[in-house]
Amino acid sequence: MEDNYANEKINALANLLVNDYCKKRAIDEVPIEHIDRSIIIEIVKKIKMVIYPGYYEKNGDDQMYNTINNVAILLRDIFYNLNEQVSIALNFCKDNIKFDRKRNVKSEQIVIDFLNKIPKIRKYLDTDIDAIFNNDPAAYSKSEIIYAYPGLFAISVYRVAHELYLLNVPLIPRIMTEYAHNMTGIDIHPGVTIGEYFCIDHGTGIVIGETSVIGNNVKIYQNVTIGALSTKGGQKLQGIKRHPTICDNVTIYSGASILGGKTIVGKNSTIGGNVFVTSSVPPNSKLSFKNRELKYNFNNSNKKH
Protein backbone atom coordinates (compact mmCIF):
# COMPACT_ATOMS: atom_id res chain seq x y z
CA MET A 1 0.00 0.00 0.00
CA GLU A 2 2.74 2.46 1.00
CA ASP A 3 4.83 1.58 -2.09
CA ASN A 4 1.85 2.16 -4.39
CA TYR A 5 1.14 5.50 -2.74
CA ALA A 6 4.75 6.64 -3.10
CA ASN A 7 4.92 5.49 -6.74
CA GLU A 8 1.74 7.40 -7.60
CA LYS A 9 3.09 10.56 -6.02
CA ILE A 10 6.46 10.21 -7.74
CA ASN A 11 4.84 9.56 -11.15
CA ALA A 12 2.62 12.59 -10.69
CA LEU A 13 5.63 14.76 -9.83
CA ALA A 14 7.55 13.39 -12.84
CA ASN A 15 4.66 14.34 -15.15
CA LEU A 16 4.53 17.78 -13.58
CA LEU A 17 8.28 18.31 -14.11
CA VAL A 18 8.21 17.07 -17.73
CA ASN A 19 5.45 19.55 -18.50
CA ASP A 20 7.48 22.26 -16.78
CA TYR A 21 10.51 21.38 -18.96
CA CYS A 22 8.46 22.29 -22.05
CA LYS A 23 8.47 26.01 -21.25
CA LYS A 24 11.71 26.44 -23.26
CA ARG A 25 13.59 28.49 -20.69
CA ALA A 26 17.37 28.30 -20.28
CA ILE A 27 16.91 25.96 -17.34
CA ASP A 28 14.82 23.58 -19.48
CA GLU A 29 17.30 22.92 -22.31
CA VAL A 30 18.61 19.37 -22.61
CA PRO A 31 21.47 19.70 -25.13
CA ILE A 32 22.70 16.78 -27.21
CA GLU A 33 26.27 17.89 -26.46
CA HIS A 34 27.52 19.54 -23.34
CA ILE A 35 30.70 20.78 -21.72
CA ASP A 36 32.10 18.18 -19.33
CA ARG A 37 33.52 19.92 -16.24
CA SER A 38 35.27 16.78 -15.03
CA ILE A 39 37.18 16.49 -18.32
CA ILE A 40 38.20 20.16 -18.15
CA ILE A 41 39.51 19.69 -14.61
CA GLU A 42 41.51 16.66 -15.77
CA ILE A 43 42.89 18.76 -18.64
CA VAL A 44 44.05 21.37 -16.13
CA LYS A 45 45.79 18.69 -14.10
CA LYS A 46 47.56 17.31 -17.17
CA ILE A 47 48.62 20.80 -18.30
CA LYS A 48 50.15 21.27 -14.85
CA MET A 49 52.09 18.04 -15.41
CA VAL A 50 53.59 19.63 -18.52
CA ILE A 51 54.25 22.95 -16.76
CA TYR A 52 55.78 21.37 -13.65
CA PRO A 53 57.50 18.16 -14.85
CA GLY A 54 58.06 15.70 -12.03
CA TYR A 55 55.69 17.35 -9.55
CA TYR A 56 52.29 15.96 -10.49
CA GLU A 57 52.92 12.49 -11.94
CA LYS A 58 51.39 9.50 -10.24
CA ASN A 59 53.58 7.36 -7.97
CA GLY A 60 56.16 5.46 -9.95
CA ASP A 61 55.90 7.79 -12.95
CA ASP A 62 58.63 10.24 -11.92
CA GLN A 63 60.49 9.82 -15.19
CA MET A 64 57.39 9.41 -17.35
CA TYR A 65 57.44 12.79 -19.01
CA ASN A 66 61.18 13.40 -19.11
CA THR A 67 61.61 12.34 -22.75
CA ILE A 68 60.39 14.07 -25.89
CA ASN A 69 58.27 11.06 -26.82
CA ASN A 70 56.48 10.93 -23.51
CA VAL A 71 55.89 14.69 -23.41
CA ALA A 72 54.39 14.35 -26.89
CA ILE A 73 52.10 11.56 -25.65
CA LEU A 74 50.84 13.78 -22.85
CA LEU A 75 50.37 16.75 -25.20
CA ARG A 76 48.38 14.57 -27.62
CA ASP A 77 46.14 13.51 -24.74
CA ILE A 78 45.56 17.16 -23.80
CA PHE A 79 44.97 18.08 -27.45
CA TYR A 80 42.38 15.37 -28.04
CA ASN A 81 40.33 16.12 -24.93
CA LEU A 82 40.65 19.90 -25.08
CA ASN A 83 39.81 19.97 -28.80
CA GLU A 84 36.59 18.09 -28.11
CA GLN A 85 35.57 20.49 -25.32
CA VAL A 86 36.59 23.62 -27.27
CA SER A 87 34.61 22.42 -30.28
CA ILE A 88 31.51 22.05 -28.13
CA ALA A 89 32.12 25.43 -26.49
CA LEU A 90 32.49 27.18 -29.84
CA ASN A 91 29.21 25.67 -31.01
CA PHE A 92 27.51 26.97 -27.92
CA CYS A 93 25.41 30.00 -28.87
CA LYS A 94 25.88 33.30 -27.07
CA ASP A 95 22.56 32.96 -25.27
CA ASN A 96 23.85 29.71 -23.72
CA ILE A 97 20.66 27.88 -24.72
CA LYS A 98 21.03 26.33 -28.17
CA PHE A 99 23.77 24.54 -30.08
CA ASP A 100 24.87 24.96 -33.66
CA ARG A 101 24.94 21.38 -34.99
CA LYS A 102 27.86 22.10 -37.33
CA ARG A 103 31.30 21.40 -35.93
CA ASN A 104 33.47 24.46 -35.75
CA VAL A 105 36.67 23.77 -37.68
CA LYS A 106 38.52 26.47 -35.70
CA SER A 107 38.82 24.31 -32.60
CA GLU A 108 41.91 22.36 -33.70
CA GLN A 109 43.85 25.50 -34.61
CA ILE A 110 42.82 27.18 -31.36
CA VAL A 111 44.06 24.24 -29.29
CA ILE A 112 47.35 24.10 -31.20
CA ASP A 113 47.77 27.86 -30.68
CA PHE A 114 47.05 27.38 -26.98
CA LEU A 115 49.55 24.53 -26.59
CA ASN A 116 52.19 26.73 -28.18
CA LYS A 117 51.59 29.22 -25.33
CA ILE A 118 52.77 26.73 -22.68
CA PRO A 119 56.42 27.93 -22.80
CA LYS A 120 55.14 31.49 -22.22
CA ILE A 121 52.99 30.29 -19.30
CA ARG A 122 56.00 28.51 -17.79
CA LYS A 123 58.10 31.66 -18.13
CA TYR A 124 55.53 33.74 -16.25
CA LEU A 125 55.00 31.12 -13.56
CA ASP A 126 58.75 30.87 -12.96
CA THR A 127 58.72 34.59 -12.09
CA ASP A 128 55.64 34.11 -9.88
CA ILE A 129 57.42 31.37 -7.91
CA ASP A 130 60.42 33.66 -7.46
CA ALA A 131 58.15 36.48 -6.24
CA ILE A 132 56.36 34.27 -3.72
CA PHE A 133 59.61 32.76 -2.44
CA ASN A 134 61.39 36.11 -2.10
CA ASN A 135 58.43 37.70 -0.29
CA ASP A 136 57.58 34.89 2.13
CA PRO A 137 60.03 33.95 4.90
CA ALA A 138 57.76 31.00 5.73
CA ALA A 139 58.65 29.38 2.40
CA TYR A 140 61.63 27.08 2.87
CA SER A 141 61.94 26.04 -0.77
CA LYS A 142 60.44 26.71 -4.18
CA SER A 143 59.32 23.09 -4.29
CA GLU A 144 57.20 23.75 -1.21
CA ILE A 145 55.51 26.61 -3.07
CA ILE A 146 54.77 24.43 -6.12
CA TYR A 147 53.45 21.55 -4.03
CA ALA A 148 51.53 23.37 -1.33
CA TYR A 149 50.79 27.07 -1.88
CA PRO A 150 47.19 27.92 -2.82
CA GLY A 151 48.31 31.25 -4.25
CA LEU A 152 50.50 29.58 -6.87
CA PHE A 153 47.78 27.01 -7.58
CA ALA A 154 45.29 29.80 -8.36
CA ILE A 155 47.84 31.78 -10.40
CA SER A 156 48.81 28.65 -12.39
CA VAL A 157 45.23 27.86 -13.34
CA TYR A 158 44.55 31.53 -14.12
CA ARG A 159 47.54 31.75 -16.48
CA VAL A 160 46.33 28.66 -18.36
CA ALA A 161 42.73 29.92 -18.53
CA HIS A 162 43.84 33.41 -19.56
CA GLU A 163 45.51 32.13 -22.74
CA LEU A 164 42.30 30.33 -23.73
CA TYR A 165 40.35 33.49 -22.91
CA LEU A 166 42.61 35.48 -25.26
CA LEU A 167 41.84 32.92 -27.98
CA ASN A 168 38.11 33.72 -27.51
CA VAL A 169 37.21 30.29 -26.17
CA PRO A 170 33.84 30.56 -24.40
CA LEU A 171 33.00 29.08 -21.00
CA ILE A 172 36.03 26.77 -20.57
CA PRO A 173 38.38 29.43 -19.11
CA ARG A 174 35.73 30.34 -16.53
CA ILE A 175 35.23 26.70 -15.56
CA MET A 176 38.99 26.45 -15.03
CA THR A 177 39.27 29.51 -12.80
CA GLU A 178 36.14 28.55 -10.84
CA TYR A 179 37.80 25.17 -10.20
CA ALA A 180 40.76 27.05 -8.71
CA HIS A 181 38.34 29.31 -6.82
CA ASN A 182 36.65 26.27 -5.32
CA MET A 183 40.00 24.72 -4.33
CA THR A 184 41.65 27.85 -2.90
CA GLY A 185 39.07 30.55 -2.17
CA ILE A 186 40.89 32.79 -4.68
CA ASP A 187 38.67 34.17 -7.45
CA ILE A 188 40.63 35.46 -10.46
CA HIS A 189 38.60 36.02 -13.62
CA PRO A 190 40.37 34.60 -16.70
CA GLY A 191 40.05 37.97 -18.44
CA VAL A 192 42.33 39.74 -15.96
CA THR A 193 45.69 40.95 -17.30
CA ILE A 194 48.55 40.16 -14.87
CA GLY A 195 52.24 40.88 -15.38
CA GLU A 196 55.33 39.04 -14.18
CA TYR A 197 56.41 38.34 -10.58
CA PHE A 198 52.85 38.19 -9.20
CA CYS A 199 52.70 37.24 -5.53
CA ILE A 200 49.64 36.10 -3.60
CA ASP A 201 50.30 35.69 0.12
CA HIS A 202 47.80 33.40 1.90
CA GLY A 203 45.14 34.37 -0.62
CA THR A 204 41.81 33.20 0.79
CA GLY A 205 39.01 35.60 -0.14
CA ILE A 206 40.81 37.43 -2.95
CA VAL A 207 38.53 38.59 -5.79
CA ILE A 208 39.95 40.09 -9.00
CA GLY A 209 37.40 41.19 -11.61
CA GLU A 210 37.46 40.59 -15.35
CA THR A 211 38.78 43.93 -16.66
CA SER A 212 41.44 44.44 -13.98
CA VAL A 213 44.97 45.16 -15.14
CA ILE A 214 47.83 44.24 -12.79
CA GLY A 215 51.44 45.18 -13.51
CA ASN A 216 54.74 43.54 -12.60
CA ASN A 217 55.93 42.83 -9.05
CA VAL A 218 52.52 43.19 -7.43
CA LYS A 219 51.86 41.54 -4.08
CA ILE A 220 48.35 40.88 -2.74
CA TYR A 221 47.30 39.55 0.65
CA GLN A 222 44.12 37.72 1.66
CA ASN A 223 40.58 39.18 1.44
CA VAL A 224 41.51 41.82 -1.12
CA THR A 225 38.89 42.88 -3.67
CA ILE A 226 39.87 44.44 -6.98
CA GLY A 227 36.38 44.99 -8.27
CA ALA A 228 33.71 47.11 -9.92
CA LEU A 229 32.04 50.10 -8.30
CA SER A 230 28.62 49.00 -9.53
CA THR A 231 27.15 46.33 -11.78
CA LYS A 232 23.64 47.82 -11.96
CA GLY A 233 23.98 48.12 -15.73
CA GLY A 234 24.16 44.33 -16.04
CA GLN A 235 24.80 43.04 -19.57
CA LYS A 236 25.08 46.60 -20.93
CA LEU A 237 28.45 46.84 -19.15
CA GLN A 238 30.02 44.01 -21.18
CA GLY A 239 33.25 45.16 -22.80
CA ILE A 240 33.52 48.26 -20.59
CA LYS A 241 36.47 48.55 -18.21
CA ARG A 242 34.84 48.16 -14.82
CA HIS A 243 37.82 47.19 -12.67
CA PRO A 244 40.99 49.01 -11.52
CA THR A 245 44.49 49.17 -12.89
CA ILE A 246 47.26 48.27 -10.44
CA CYS A 247 50.66 49.52 -11.61
CA ASP A 248 54.08 47.96 -11.01
CA ASN A 249 55.56 47.33 -7.55
CA VAL A 250 52.30 47.77 -5.62
CA THR A 251 51.54 45.95 -2.35
CA ILE A 252 47.92 45.54 -1.23
CA TYR A 253 47.38 44.37 2.34
CA SER A 254 44.57 42.21 3.70
CA GLY A 255 40.99 43.40 3.58
CA ALA A 256 41.58 46.27 1.15
CA SER A 257 38.99 47.03 -1.54
CA ILE A 258 39.98 48.85 -4.73
CA LEU A 259 37.04 49.57 -7.01
CA GLY A 260 36.20 51.15 -10.35
CA GLY A 261 37.38 51.05 -13.93
CA LYS A 262 38.86 54.54 -13.77
CA THR A 263 40.79 53.81 -10.57
CA ILE A 264 44.56 53.57 -11.07
CA VAL A 265 46.95 52.70 -8.24
CA GLY A 266 50.27 54.28 -9.17
CA LYS A 267 53.52 52.35 -9.16
CA ASN A 268 55.48 51.78 -5.94
CA SER A 269 52.38 52.39 -3.81
CA THR A 270 51.25 50.55 -0.69
CA ILE A 271 47.56 50.06 0.12
CA GLY A 272 47.09 49.31 3.81
CA GLY A 273 44.76 46.77 5.38
CA ASN A 274 41.01 47.42 5.17
CA VAL A 275 41.47 50.58 3.08
CA PHE A 276 38.59 51.36 0.69
CA VAL A 277 39.76 52.99 -2.56
CA THR A 278 37.43 54.33 -5.28
CA SER A 279 39.64 56.96 -6.91
CA SER A 280 43.13 56.95 -8.38
CA VAL A 281 46.22 56.88 -6.19
CA PRO A 282 49.41 58.72 -7.28
CA PRO A 283 52.68 56.80 -7.61
CA ASN A 284 54.75 56.24 -4.43
CA SER A 285 51.69 56.63 -2.17
CA LYS A 286 51.01 54.92 1.15
CA LEU A 287 47.35 54.61 2.13
CA SER A 288 46.35 53.48 5.60
CA PHE A 289 43.85 54.11 8.35
CA LYS A 290 44.99 56.39 11.12
CA ASN A 291 45.55 54.36 14.26
CA ARG A 292 42.43 54.41 16.39
CA GLU A 293 42.49 54.66 20.15
CA LEU A 294 41.64 51.37 21.80
CA LYS A 295 40.09 51.62 25.26
CA TYR A 296 39.84 48.82 27.78
CA ASN A 297 37.17 48.81 30.46
CA PHE A 298 38.05 46.16 33.02
CA ASN A 299 35.61 45.02 35.69
CA ASN A 300 37.81 44.57 38.77
CA SER A 301 35.87 41.84 40.51
CA ASN A 302 38.73 41.25 42.96
CA LYS A 303 38.48 44.72 44.47
CA LYS A 304 38.13 44.58 48.27
CA HIS A 305 35.34 46.53 49.98
What does this structure look like?
The protein has helices at 2-21, 37-51, 68-91, 106-115, 118-135, 142-148, 150-166, 172-184, and strands at 187-188, 193-194, 199-200, 207-208, 213-214, 219-220, 225-227, 245-246, 251-252, 257-259, 264-265, 270-271, 276-277, 286-287. It has 305 residues and is an alpha/beta fold. The chain has 2 domains: 33-191, serine acetyltransferase, domain 1 (Orthogonal Bundle), CATH 1.10.3130; 192-290, UDP N-Acetylglucosamine Acyltransferase, domain 1 (3 Solenoid). The chain starts with a helix and ends in an 18-residue tail after the last strand. The relative contact order is 0.07.
Quick structural summary:
With 305 residues, this protein is α/β, with parallel strands linked by helices. Helix content is 41%, strand content 10%. The longest helix is centred in the N-terminal third of the chain and has 24 residues, at 68-91.
